[in-house]
Every structure is written in C-alpha cells, then in structure tokens.
Specification:
The protein has 246 residues and is mostly helical. It folds into 2 domains: 9-63; 73-244, no CATH class. It is 72% helix and 2% strand. The protein is built from 11 helices and 2 strands. The protein has a two-stranded parallel ribbon. Helix 6 (74-102) packs antiparallel against helix 7, helix 7 packs antiparallel against helix 10 (180-192) and helix 7 (111-152) runs parallel beside helix 11.
Length: 246
C-alpha cells in the first residue's frame, strides 16, 4: 500500500505502528484526530512530498525512489537524519538499556551472563554515539556549507582546499557498519542465554534490538544511497564554480 496525501494519518499508523517514531521526527505528535496527511503537512508547514516519500520508504522497503529523494534540499535530508540520531540516543538506546537492566531480576540468569549483555550493549552504545557525533560535528555541517556556497554561486578558495582534504568520498570510506554489533548481541540472546521457561524479559530486549536494527538500516539507506550521491554532485558543482579570492 502506497501512502497517499488524502489518507488520515491515524489510519496509516493503525496499519503500520512502526511509523510513529518517524512522524515524531517531523515534530508531529499523537492527538491529530481525523486529519489527513495533507492537512497536517499544511498546518505544520511540512514539505508534503518529502514527508510522504520518507513515510513510504520506511513503510515499504521495496519503495525507494532515489532520484526523487535526491531532488529534495540536502538540508531537508540532514534535518531528518539528525532528528533520527536524537531518537536513537535519547529514546531507543536508553529504553533497551532499561530492558537489559531488568534481566538482572531473572534468577535463572547468572551474573556473568547479565554483565556480558550489559557490557556488550554498552560498547555498542559507545560506537553508535561516536559514529553519530562524527556525522553531526563534521559531515552535516560540511553539507550545509556546500549548500550555502551553491546558493551564493561563488566559493572561497579556502573552502575548496578544505573540500579536497575531506570530501564525502572519505566519509564513505569511514562510514562504520554500526548494525553489525547489534547482530552479534541478538545472536547471544537467541543462541546462548539459558532457558527459563518464561522468556518474556528476553523477548522484550530482542524485540527492541530488531526494531532498532530495522530503523538503522533504513537510516543508512538514506545516508548511503541518497545523501552521499547528492553531496558528491554538490561537490562537483562547487569545483566548477568561480572562486572568491578576497
């Protein structure tokens, strides 16, 4: 089902509740009544086509219109990705940590195994945080600079030198696969935790890990297949612009 502008957003969420955190990244919160997507976007001054494209990309993994997504301003992509980062660090990761902490109440789970899970996820949190901080402090401001110079139609020579030193190609080479450690953690839970006869606490952790992994996969698709090619095209444009040597 392709999500359309005339649909009521409440009906869309009934069909796919995983879209709740996605709409939050557009500052849309629950309590919007019978409003359609078009009405909500108009009320909140949201680019409707961008909103619909992101919703459909998360709702249906077969739907991924690269050229259409690349037609939107880089700032729109960066703003969305940045809000996704805040969701991971401020909401999803602490939620998973709390579920792991609850495991220590399981009498069938020895302290050594509990600490293994806790420390393993702690290491993952550190890697994810470092990955996000690098994007927020280096990559996204760089994209913003590119966009501003293109709008101006003239570029400082100093920025050209900076671009040569750190282009988006280098970012691609450094782009960590932050999902790999999640797979290892899921494997520990699925294969090696002791059976208790009541595995509900395990299921909670496992469910949240799968949800985080799916969200991160969608996030990475947008970064790798939309943002990076768009930035490469912007860099090409900048290199062919006249310079301001003043």
């Amino acid at each position: 089902m392709l999500i359309q502008k005339e649909m009521k957003l409440a009906d869309v969420l009934h069909h796919d509740h995983n879209l709740v955190p996605v709409i939050n990244r557009f500052d849309i919160h629950l309590g919007f009544g019978e409003a359609t997507i078009e009405e909500i976007c108009e009320d909140k001054k949201i680019n409707r086509e961008f909103f619909l494209t992101i919703l459909n990309a998360y709702h249906d993994h077969q739907y991924f219109p690269k050229k259409h997504l690349q037609s939107f301003p880089a700032s729109s992509l960066v703003n969305y990705l940045s809000k996704s980062h805040r969701y991971y660090l401020n909401e999803k990761v602490p939620e998973i940590e709390s579920y792991i902490d609850d495991l220590k109440e399981n009498k069938d789970l020895n302290t050594e195994t509990y600490l293994l899970l806790k420390n393993f996820f702690g290491q993952y949190k550190t890697e994810l945080t470092q990955h996000i901080e690098r994007e927020e402090n280096l990559v996204y401001p760089y994209v913003g600079q590119l966009e501003k110079y293109i709008e101006k139609g003239i570029v400082d020579r100093s920025f050209l030198e900076e671009m040569e030193a750190y282009s988006i190609t280098k970012y691609e080479e450094e782009h960590d696969d932050v999902e790999a450690k999640l797979y290892d953690l899921k494997n520990i839970i699925i294969k090696y935790l002791p059976s208790t006869g009541n595995d509900s606490s395990y299921y909670k952790v496992l469910r949240e890990l799968f949800m985080l992994e799916n969200d991160l996969n969608d996030h990475s698709r947008i970064e790798d297949h939309i943002l990076v090619p768009k930035v490469e095209a912007m860099e090409f444009t900048i290199k062919n612009m006249r310079t301001n040597d003043a």
